[in-house]
Specification:
15 strands, single chain, six-stranded mixed sheet, binds zinc ion, Arc Repressor Mutant, subunit A, Metallo-beta-lactamase, Chain A, seven-stranded mixed sheet, about 300 residues
């Protein structure tokens, strides 16, 4: 499936990028050419456009679901070649317009010891994501907008990051879930301003609506027909991870380093950047366990609270 396009409606397609550091891009070809989250392979986008007698400089609009580098990868480059308009929500826009703000937003403030490793990873694997560029149109929550006659509506779904949004297609009743992606990896909330509680609320919001299908930002088979069942399984990862952390503490792990001795979320922690993401995610779980009064933190020493 890698590198292929999937047709969703006569106007809407998904260019399969798949797993991080790529993502699935949604292409809308109607009176205008629009791409949502240009993080698929550029060659795959170009190849598909050629099948429609189009070039990358025919792109009129780019829409960004959130500020993650794997979703904005080619936005600045495509705007340079096509002079297209970039659309983003009111939280994403200032971050896209100022990449220093973006780095801070994602937790990599100047002097953060992992920042150079993260920048190197972005530049190696998502080259172009840190290029300076500018958003043209700012979208509010539940705002309807037209991509060459195809209507989209924003649905703010924070948690993954505070700026994350999904996009609903009114006529066909599909939703682009972006990083509410229904993957086996489960939800990602690896930044200081990510939020497990917000993420759960956002998943519930998407589950409360009926759709023809959810378009995943990362699944190789991108269309999820039964999004409610898929999101139930996806949501389970929060509890599984939390149980795992609680078990480690019950078995005597006291510091966050001891809790993280074996990977919990990622399979391998040989990469500094993934290790940082894992730490931020474990920290979110520890805070949530403290809030639930299952764990207490005495100056960095974690202990379970038994009834
Ligand atoms: Zn993301």
């Amino acid at each position: 499936m890698q590198g292929k396009a999937v047709q969703i409606t006569p106007e809407i397609y998904t260019i399969i990028g798949g797993k991080f550091p790529l993502c699935n891009s949604v292409l809308v070809i109607s009176d205008q050419v629009s791409i949502i989250d240009p993080g698929c392979r550029l060659e795959d986008l170009r190849t598909f456009l050629h099948t429609k007698n189009l070039e990358q400089n025919d792109i009129d609009n780019i829409v960004l679901s959130h500020i993650h580098p794997d979703h904005i990868t080619h936005a600045a480059r495509l705007k340079r070649v096509s002079d297209c308009k970039i659309w983003a929500n009111e939280i994403t826009a200032p971050l896209f317009d100022d990449k220093e703000k973006m780095k801070n937003f994602l937790g990599f403030h100047p002097g953060h010891k992992i920042r150079p490793f993260w920048e190197a990873m972005v530049n190696n694997k998502m080259y172009g994501a840190l290029d300076e560029s500018e958003v043209d149109y700012i979208l509010a929550d539940r705002e309807r907008f037209s991509l060459g006659g195809i209507e989209g509506t924003t649905l703010f779904t924070p948690g993954h990051t505070p700026d994350h949004m999904c996009i609903e297609f009114a006529e066909s009743n599909y939703i682009f879930g972006a990083d509410i992606d229904c993957t086996d990896f489960g939800p990602y909330y690896g930044h200081p301003n990510s939020s497990i509680e917000d993420f759960k609320r956002s998943i519930s919001l998407v589950m409360s609506k009926s759709y023809e299908g959810l378009i995943s930002g990362h699944l190789l088979e991108p269309i999820v027909r039964d999004h409610v069942s898929a999101l139930k399984s996806y949501r389970m990862h929060f509890d599984l991870r939390e149980d795992f952390i609680l078990m480690r503490i019950s078995k005597g792990a006291r510091s966050i380093d001891e809790i993280m001795e074996e990977p919990i979320i990622y399979k391998s922690l040989s990469d500094f950047v993934l290790l940082q993401f894992e730490r931020w995610m474990v920290e979110h779980h520890l805070n949530s366990l403290i809030q639930k009064e299952l764990v207490r933190n005495d100056n960095g020493i974690y202990r379970t609270i038994r009834a």
